[in-house]
Amino acid sequence: MTGLTEEQLNHYKNKGYVSPVSALTSIEAKEIRDEIEKIEKDWPGALEGINRNYIHLISPIFNKVCLNKNILDAVESIIGKNILICGTTLFIKNPNERGFVSFHQDAKYIGLEPHNWVTVWVAVTDANEKNGCMRMLPGSHKEDLKTHKQKFDENNLLTRGQTITNVQLDRTDPIILKAGQVSLHHPKIVHGSGLNQSNDRRIGFVIQSYIGTNVNQVIGKMYVQIARGEDKYKYHEYSQTPFELMGKNEVTSQNKANEELSKIFYSGSKKIGKF
Ligand SMILES: O=C(O)CCC(=O)C(=O)O
Fold first, then answer.
1. Whose C-alpha lies nearest to ligand 1, atom 1?
2. In angstroms, what is the span from residue 187 Cα to ligand 1's centroid?
3. Is the CB of 123 under 6 A from ligand 1?
4. Paired residues of 22 in beta bridges
5. What are the CA-CA distances from residue 129 to residues 96, 133, 140, 173 (Å)?
6. Is residue 274 a part of any domain in this protein?
7. Which of 105, 121, 131, 169 could form a disulfide with 202 if both were Cys (CB 3.0 to 4.6 A apart)?
8. Pocket-testing residue among 90, 91, 188, 275, ligand 1, by greatest number of atoms within 8 A of Cβ
9. How much distance in Å is there from the Cα of 34 to the middle of ligand 1?
10. Tens digit of each residue's pLDDT (9 = 90 or more) over 11-65
11. What's the pLDDT band for 128 if we cut at 50, 70, 90?
12. CA trace torsion 191, 263, 44, 98 (10° rounding)
């Protein structure tokens, strides 16, 4: 295992994120983009709303990304050798839309305890300040979970539009990535992203998240796959590896997982958002 260098690991421990980490080639990143754009063309709506989640269950190409050795080595440096994939999400910002992500902490509503998990953001396209890359508030992962306002803004790419207010932009670090590079962030780090002001799409394929096998789901039920090591705890349901793009079994398996995910996302909320 290669994994993160000591410097990268210290950065993660001190700041709550590490970036950029080399993972895929630009050709592999383009393969993901092509797969996304093929699905959008051949199955309109198939990646929208709740269906932007668990997309590694409907495509062998997306599934392969989750098993990428460079990514898993980096993840292993943080959470140890017994690793489950417990979700994927697409964060797409098209140039003509007003999509943004309010500042939030991932651990707030997801019910994964303890916090032995990490999120990997795979740059499918380049991500930079012009096209609305993520911004991290360094060190904020050391603080408690904060109050989030549930705003449900139409252009917010988060489920409830959950927002931590009064985050000073000039105290945040931009996560600038080339297509194929990844960043890794801690469950409690405060992060968000602004508008895409470029004339191309900004696409993030987010493995949300890799969890240690010792991590339970305290709100609902989650579908996982083993990425590395051994699962002695068996806390979760297992989903099948996809063999065929958008096959019947693959779509059924995604739908089942998303039905449960939706219950977790909106647990205790009076309103249901569009994702
Ligand atoms: O893609 C973005 O801009 C935000 C993604 C995000 O919040 C996350 O990966 O946790």
1. 91
2. 12
3. no
4. 181
5. 16, 6, 21, 10
6. no
7. 131
8. 91
9. 21
10. 999 999 999 999 999 999 999 999 999 999 999 999 999 999 999 999 999 999 9
11. very high
12. -30
Q: What would the mean pLDDT of 78-85 be, rounded to a whole number?
A: 98
Q: Which of 191, 195, 208, 275 to mutate to test the pocket of ligand 1 (most atoms within 8 A of CB)?
A: 191
pLDDT value of position 221:
96
Q: How far is the CA of 29 from the centre of ligand 1 (A)?
A: 18
pLDDT tops 80 at residue 275: no
1 within a domain of the structure (yes/no): no
- Token pair in block for residue 101: 């992500």
Ligand 1 centroid to residue 137 C-alpha, Å: 13
Give the CATH number of the domain where residue 200 resides. Answer: 2.60.120.620
Classify residue 232 by burial, with Cβ atoms within 10 Å: 0-12, 13-18, 19+: exposed
251 in a structural domain: yes
Average pLDDT of the chain is: 95
What pLDDT band is residue 267 in, cutting at 50, 70 and 90?
confident
Regarding the beta carbon of 193 and ligand 1, being less than 6 Å apart is answered yes
| Axis crossing angle, helix 69-79 with helix 6-15, rounded to the nearest 10 | 60
State the distance from the centre of ligand 1 to the C-alpha of 108, rounded, in angstroms. Answer: 14
pTM above 0.85, yes or no: yes
Number of domains in the chain: 1
The structure tokens 């709303």 sit at 49
pLDDT computed for residue 123 by the predictor: 98
- Residue 272 domain-assigned? no
Instruction: Specify the pLDDT at position 145.
Output: 95
Report d(CA 138, CA 190) in Å as an integer.
8
